[in-house]
Design brief:
globular; 6-stranded parallel β-sheet; 9-stranded mixed β-sheet; about 180 residues; mainly beta; single chain
């Protein structure tokens, strides 16, 4: 994909220093830190409302090797209220809402993430699977268990960032209406 088409909805906060490549739509209220990377290699990426994408987080829309060269172009839809923490690497083909990808975790391109899941710090998931709702993956051996509730929303952190980031970074202007 050679051309960039970045669509930013009102109230989204996208730092100019972030690396955005391909056809990407960024939902209202989403915050993208500087040095975050979002690459739409296999097709468009649509990021939902109020997502938080932190420093050095990488979201890459890449097809599994056996699906490359097929006719249809899949769209990676990322739901609302997701948190991508520092230095996480996510290539999942579908991501629901209210998920947390903790620091230095890796989610491969054959893993579908539903809603309310937490992938713990340093956990690496590459095996083809669909994570059920409210699954928590933690520990050195990536143990899975079902959580009682979805992870809490990052409302306070998002409010603070929306006030502080514009003071220290250049911000891309919204270019789409709701």
């Amino acid at each position: 994909m050679s051309r960039n088409s970045i669509k930013i909805l009102p109230s989204a906060l996208v730092c100019e220093e972030s690396k955005l490549r391909g056809d990407i739509t960024i939902g209202a209220g989403t915050i993208i830190h500087p040095s975050a990377t979002i690459l739409a290699e296999a097709g468009p990426i649509i990021i939902g409302d109020s997502c938080l994408i932190e420093e050095q987080a990488r979201i890459i829309h890449r097809l599994p090797f056996e699906q490359q060269g097929t006719e249809n172009t899949p769209v990676l839809i990322i739901g609302s209220h997701n948190v991508f923490e520092v230095d996480c690497h996510v290539e999942s083909p579908k991501i629901g809402s209210c998920n947390v990808f903790e620091s230095k975790c890796y989610v491969g391109n054959k893993v579908t993430v539903t809603n309310g899941c937490t992938v713990g710090a340093g956990c690496k998931i590459t095996q083809e699977q669909i994570l059920n709702e409210n699954i928590i993956i933690v520990g050195e051996k990536c143990h899975m268990r079902e959580g009682l509730d979805r992870p809490g929303l990052q409302t306070l952190q998002m409010e603070t960032l929306s006030k502080v980031l514009p003071n220290y970074h250049h911000i891309r202007k919204p270019n789409k209406k709701n």
